[in-house]
């Protein structure tokens, strides 16, 4: 399988998913990587106390995208943040802003995970009050 992509606590809408037994549910493999990439993209750089370089600056663009250069900057920052994960093959990430409005930026992201044959595709919706993996998980 793809255990090399990791296992982590499953977060749904920012909350831990709890099993009927009271244990935390987990995600593994591709689902874990997608969740981790989404968390990296929505966390402001410096927002993780133990890893000050972790995160992205996408939050700066929410509710303020005004020009095509902003769109390019969002796409470039997305690629940079995704490829800072060691499970992603450098040079394989593509990011395309598919919609922007006053509340949300939606980004289609594609990348190749290490030791995987198929690319991973996801759509991230990111706004001031929420971030949602719209597809891919």
Strand order of the largest sheet: 5-6-7-8
Enumerate the spans where pLDDT stays under 50 for 5 or more consecutive residues.
none
Separation of the first and last Cα atoms: 16 Å
Q: Which strand-content bin applies to the residues?
A: 25-35%
Say how many strands there are: 8
Oligomer: single chain
- Radius of gyration, in Å, reads 15 Å
Overall mean pLDDT stands at: 88
- Main sheet attributes: strand count, strand direction, barrel closure: 4 strands, antiparallel
Shape: globular
- What structural category characterises the helix and strand content? alpha+beta
Order of helices and strands: EEEEHHEEEE
Helix content estimate = 10-25%
Task: Name the descriptors.
single chain, 137 residues, alpha+beta, 4-stranded antiparallel β-sheet
At a glance:
This protein is α+β, with helices and mostly antiparallel strands and 137 residues long. The protein has helices spanning 29-42, 68-83; strands spanning 7-9, 11-12, 15-16, 26-28, 94-100, 105-111, 120-126, 131-135.
Structure description:
The protein is an alpha+beta fold and 137 residues long. The protein contains 2 helices and 8 strands. It has helices at residues 29-42, 68-83; strands spanning 7-9, 11-12, 15-16, 26-28, 94-100, 105-111, 120-126, 131-135. The strands form 3 sheets. Strands 5-6-7-8 form a 4-stranded antiparallel beta sheet, with helices on one face. Strands 1-4 form a two-stranded antiparallel ribbon. Strand 5 and strand 6 (105-111) form a beta hairpin. The longest helix has 16 residues, at 68-83. The protein starts with 6 loop residues before the first strand and ends with a strand. The relative contact order is 0.17. The model has no long low-confidence stretch (mean pLDDT 88).
